[in-house]
Amino acid sequence: MELTRYVDELQHQLATAAAAGGDEARELAGRLTAPLDAAVRLVLLEALSTAANEITAELAPGAVDVRLRGRDPEFVVTPAPSPAFDGAAAPAAEPARPAVLDPDDVSTSRTTLRLPDQLKAQVEEAAAREGMSVNTWLVRAVAAALAPTATSRPAARATSTSGRVTGWVR
């Protein structure tokens, strides 16, 4: 996403507003527009990052990340996995995925989480391995932990003829 057109538009609007104030105001606006370029870009990036975090909270277990490529942001969308059901048992390496969050609940909450340093390092490594922020990784982990598991299904649906059992045990 190229931010230059938005920065240029803001500079144009500032120049137009300053024109009504006469030559002195126009000259001051001209001196302010160049230094404002970096500040405007930073504010736009912060707004885009906040928007991506809010979208990620609604999209969990999917995610939207904002990455900086040169001077411009780039959006990376990680869709939620779509579970395919073919009647066969799921492989042991694939944990149960969380259910989609309620789309009517658009609010987010800030929570302070204190982790031991060793666990924090492991969380950061896991998030980096999956190419996402720690916050996005934690939202997914919590959503997965709270999702209904295969063991909550009725026993009649959980039967298997392969003799192999996979899943979580409480």
Automatic annotation (TrEMBL):
* GO BP: regulation of DNA-templated transcription
The identity of this protein, by name, is: HicB family protein
- Biased composition of type Low complexity is found at 87-99, 149-162
Please list where the region (Disordered) is annotated.
Answer: 87-110, 149-170
Q: Which InterPro entries match?
A: Arc_rbn_hlx_hlx, Ribbon_hlx_hlx
User: What organism does the record attribute this protein to?
Assistant: Oerskovia enterophila
